[in-house]
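Input record (one chain):
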Amino acid sequence: MGNRQVVQGIRTGGRSARVRDAVLAAVLDELNANGYAALSVEALASRAGVNKTTIYRRWPTLDDLLVDALITWSHDAIPAPDTGSIETDLLALGRILADQLNGGIGQQIVAVVLTAGLRSAALREATRRYLDHQAERATAVVTRAIDRGELPDNTDTFALLTTFRAPLFYRMVTTGDPIDDDLIALTTRVTLTAARAGLLSA
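The corresponding structure, as predicted from the sequence alone:
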């Protein structure tokens, strides 16, 4: 229910906004309940209480709808920290990711993202759009760190994010053990060491 509230909290007013909220919430609910394999326009229309044509009118493909749902979810579920330091920003981001990846809808979303290339070219492109969006949101975090002199001027945001997130995703996928503060701290140190050595440059 918490994830439904996250999505439905983004409202702009009017019936169109209510329909969008209902459909996006249905995507998250369906992913959480049945996984990506069971995702279909028919199931989403039924869960959201709308016609299939309503969904197709706004989202031509299921992957378009999935990307919209992921981006909308991530705006609230994974905010970009601004703590005044790149180290504490990454630690905060790691804890936010841990909260999501240690169970529930976050695990389902990451499972979709990580296996996209194995499913279809269309889904691979859809998840690429999602990851690009995440990198764009994190650009401000890296830019502030560069302005403070904490990172080299040519630090690549996407490379830094990839280096930071990879160990967290790896643990979730391989062992299923909880992502804890020790792993987050280690990942932060490794990422910043690589970035400051110029290994994560554009």
